[in-house]
Amino acid sequence: MNDVAVQVDASLGVGSSPHFSFGTTISGLDDFRREWGAQFGKRFQLPAFTRDSMNDFQVRSRGFRIHDVASVNLHGVSAVRTAGVPGCDEDLVRLYVVRRGTWTLGGLRDLDEHDVSAGQFFFRHFGQAPSFETTPRTTASILYLPTPALAPLLRGRSASGPADSAELRLLLAHTNMLQENMSGLSPVGVRTAYNVLVELAGAVLLGRFDDVEPLLAPALAQAAKGIVDRRLADPELSTTMLARELHVSPRTLQRAFAVAGESVTAYIRHQRLERARNVLNTPFTRLSVSQLAAHWHFTDSSHFIRAFKKQYGQTPAEYARSRRSGTAS
């Protein structure tokens, strides 16, 4: 792995309620504070909110915590404005990744404020919790990370850049997997997940990761799947293109997929067939089999029909008829 000290020992207590998911519906500030306090405790304190934010607080959130690491995904329907946490010395490294809207940080020692806009990330070691302001409909991820491992890489500076870097894609893929699977991990699995998360956070700062490290294979495969799912209609979609986007060799990417017993090309084909099947599920669709085959970049109609039947047990025409007659499962 890269030169980031991330080893975790049993004293971390990572087995004590390491995972949570909350706020799946829009909640008011009182509910949000109550749930945050129950799950995060005093280490990750909420700031004081301004009166207008308190009167119209509409935020969806979910996340997890492992000892001194926490990850939260937030979607704010309303704008939010805070005044920081008075007198709070937190000594944490924070990573902000904004997907939509703008997150403005204030109260920084060397900056009056800093805007993190959509498609950007901002990495900084905070000695005191900053105030912040968001625009309506802002969607962002915030990672609270351990100072000993990451502050030396920052060297007292901030780091920022595009959210589509290979290193950040791997980090976010890993945190998303943890969000979904944390409750099923063993204590050893939780410690490994913690180490990988901090390792990948360090990789964002270093601008590189160890592409032959086997522990990173799941995150690498998940990051590639995220690109596939967003770009299924791209005629250039391939193992080579994905490897180039993620700054690894095609062989490394293929090995990462092989860990889960699949191949890159098989995953792309499966997802394209699933999208085609969804179209056939649409009432009164007017797309022909040849049009579906062309849209999802199959060689020809015959190839598409064979692949569809192998996956679903019916040809596209048979499947469409069975849906119309109401006999499909």
TrEMBL record:
Name of the protein in its database record: AraC-like DNA-binding protein
One Pfam family recorded for the sequence: HTH_18
Domain named HTH araC/xylS-type: residues: 222-322
Gene source species: Umezawaea tangerina
SMART domains given in the database record: HTH_ARAC
Gene Ontology molecular function: DNA-binding transcription factor activity; sequence-specific DNA binding
UniProt cross-references to PROSITE patterns, sorted A to Z: HTH_ARAC_FAMILY_2
Keywords recorded for this protein, A-Z: DNA-binding, Transcription, Transcription regulation
InterPro entries assigned: AraC_XylS_family_regulators, Homeodomain-like_sf, HTH_AraC, Tscrpt_reg_AraC-type_HTH
